[in-house]
Amino acid sequence: MSLSPVQIHTIFEAAAYFVGFRWFLRERRRLNVDSLADGEARYTVIAGAVLGAAIGAKLAYWSYDPAYAFADFPDWRHLLEGKSIIGALLGGLIGVETAKRVAGIRTSTGDAFVHPLAIGMMIGRAGCFLSGLDDHTYGDPTSLPWGVDFGDGIPRHPTQLYEVVFLLVWVFVVIDRLLPSRLQRAGDQFRVFLAGYLMYRLLVEFIRPAPFHLLGLSGLQWWCVFGLAYYARDMIRISRSIPGKR
Question: Average pLDDT, whole number, for the chain?
Answer without folding.
Answer: 88
